From TrEMBL:
Recorded family membership: Belongs to the class-II pyridoxal-phosphate-dependent aminotransferase family.
EC number, as in UniProt: 2.3.1.50
Gene3D superfamilies documented for this protein: Aspartate Aminotransferase, domain 1, Type I PLP-dependent aspartate aminotransferase-like (Major domain)
Class of the enzyme per the UniProt entry, highest EC level: transferase
UniProt keywords, alphabetically: Acyltransferase, Endoplasmic reticulum, Lipid metabolism, Membrane, Pyridoxal phosphate, Sphingolipid metabolism, Transferase, Transmembrane, Transmembrane helix
Keyword Endoplasmic reticulum (UniProt): yes
Bilayer topology: Single-pass membrane protein
Residue ranges of the TM segments: 28-49
Database matches in PROSITE patterns: AA_TRANSFER_CLASS_2
Stretches assigned to coiled coil: none
Record protein name field: serine C-palmitoyltransferase
GO-annotated cellular components: endoplasmic reticulum membrane; serine palmitoyltransferase complex
Length: 522
């Protein structure tokens, strides 16, 4: 016989259990790993050979070099540190930094460029690649748009305030629309207070040092974003890294921190801060929020949640992972998010209790020294958030949230059917397709561009050396026809480059098995 899993917390635990079971991290066959390391080994050997040819003058050296009169100085950088860049990255450099010459919406235009010296320099051909499907931008809800009717309020604010503030908010840069935005964000998130910043990266890197310092302990997920890592390092706090989404690893570190205290002195830590992300931008995985909240309460720690990729993108009304798991926002001590993805703007926010936000207003470097957010950017965020909340009198916001969820599930299911290995949660609009081998990374990006599809490929050091991938970002602005076109070309390229490494068999109708989870009676 069978019975539904309810767990000790009832239906909420059952829902959380389903979410984790819907995450996939399939391992590639052993031969793929062997070929990947062999590929890097061959490229590295050729790199040393080319360095030797440059040293003896048989190959032209394109590198910036020290002048003769500076030879006796300590070198600005060690030559070996640049080995990867000049011998590996330079071979595939044409797949990054492509100049876009249109709105980066669901389709965009790219300026064609070629290289005559193996990617050391580029020249424009004067031609434009029109209407390439954009599968790389974080335009989750499609608010990166240029519809004049939608942007009327942004244009009005630009006429009223201009495009720049030229001051910090603590001096004469605090505008009424900044305060309106903060009240709106607090209402949207269900928290007491919020504070906004002009740059998403700095929201993490400049605020974490204001929250913790020497004598504090940071427990950081091993896949956290660079902005979180930089903020942790700048804080001066002790940093310990736990395995990705591994509650056993986290609890072990928490128990040890509480029992042993600080090194040498064994005094209690001043603060213990757990740092996690809502959706991890390279894996597409979703944080195990209910379990982390339970652990932070058990061990009297604080929780810092980065919702850069999850706010607006998940949850029935776009309120992020707290809504996805039905977790009380008050249980998250510091909620952080950005406006650069789902809201089609720029900047970020810190949200939580009023005491927290008031403290940051006077202690955060990003608050005290950074210029205030640009007025048209502020209005764009207000416009998008009102659309999501339905305060503009329509249901366009909810329609976009549902469309994004539908596109995400459809795209992920089709990729699994084709035989690709993809990472992450079925609800995550970040979809990594594993490519593994260095040669396939460059070939994949070039083949997709030939088919007028813009993709983002990522390799070492942004990912583990054996897990290079292409990262697709779904958008509510993508139509089913666009997705079908992308999937058609993916199927062809996957066959041509032998990228279908999955050994699992997937049902063509996975939604039939998502209503209830079951377990056998013991």
């Amino acid at each position: 016989s069978v019975k539904p899993i309810t767990g000790k917390n009832g239906p909420r635990a059952s829902f959380a259990s389903r979410q984790y079971q819907r995450e996939s991290f399939e391992q590639a066959p052993m031969y793929v790993a062997v070929m990947t390391y062999l590929g890097f080994g061959i490229v590295t050997l050729f790199g040393y050979l080319r360095d030797f040819l440059r040293a003896v003058g048989l190959e032209k050296c394109h590198l910036a070099q020290e002048r003769d009169e500076q030879k006796d100085f300590v070198p600005l950088y060690q030559d070996f540190e640049n080995f990867y860049t000049r011998n590996l990255y330079m071979r595939v450099r044409d797949n990054w930094n492509r100049p876009v010459c249109s709105l980066p919406g669901p389709v965009f235009d790219l300026m064609e460029r070629v290289s005559d010296d193996y990617n050391w320099t580029f020249r424009f051909t004067g031609r434009t690649i029109h209407n390439a499907i954009n599968m790389g931008s974080y335009n989750y809800l499609g608010f990166a748009e240029n519809n004049a009717d939608f942007l009327k309020t942004v244009a009005d604010i630009t006429h009223q305030y201009g495009v720049g503030v030229c001051s910090t908010r603590q001096e004469i840069g605090n505008l009424s629309i900044h305060e309106e935005l903060e009240e709106l964000v607090a209402s949207f998130l269900g928290v007491e207070s919020t504070m906004t910043f002009g740059m998403g990266f700095a929201t993490n890197s400049m605020n974490i040092p204001a929250l913790v310092g020497k004598g504090c302990l940071i427990l950081s997920d091993e896949l956290n974003h660079t902005s979180l890592i930089l903020g942790a390092r700048l804080s001066g706090a002790t940093i310990r890294v736990f395995k990705h989404n591994n509650m056993h690893s986290l609890e072990k570190m928490l128990r040890e921190a509480v029992c042993s205290g600080q090194p040498r002195t064994h005094r209690p830590w001043k603060k213990i801060l757990i740092m996690v992300e809502g959706i991890y931008s390279m894996e597409g995985s979703v944080v195990q929020l209910p379990e982390i909240v339970a652990l932070k309460k058990k061990y009297k720690a604080y929780l810092y949640l980065d919702e850069a990729h999850s706010i607006g993108a998940v949850g029935a009304s776009g309120r992020g992972v707290t809504e996805l798991f039905d977790v009380n926002p008050a249980d998250v001590d510091v909620m952080m998010g950005t406006f650069t993805k789902s809201f089609g703007a720029a900047g970020g926010y810190i949200a939580g209790k009023k005491e927290l936000v008031d403290y940051l207003r006077s202690h955060s470097h990003s608050a005290v020294y950074a210029s205030a957010m640009s007025p048209p950017v502020t209005e764009q965020i207000i416009r998008a958030m009102k659309c999501i909340l339905g305060k503009d009198g329509g249901r366009e916001g909810i329609r976009r949230i549902r469309q994004l969820a539908e596109n995400t599930r459809y795209f992920r299911a089709r990729l699994k059917e084709m035989g690709f290995i993809i990472y992450g949660n079925d609800d995550s609009p970040v979809v990594p397709i594993l490519l593994y081998m260095p040669g396939k990374v460059a070939a994949f990006a070039r083949e997709m561009l030939e088919r007028k599809i813009g993709v983002v490929v990522v390799g070492f050091p942004a990912t583990p050396i054996s897990e290079a991938r292409a990262r697709f970002c779904l958008s509510a602005a993508h139509t089913r026809a666009m997705l079908d076109q992308v999937l058609h070309h993916l199927n062809e390229v996957g066959d041509a480059l032998c990228l279908k490494f999955s050994q699992r068999k997937y049902s063509p109708r996975p939604d039939l098995y998502e209503e209830t989870d079951f377990e056998l009676d013991s």
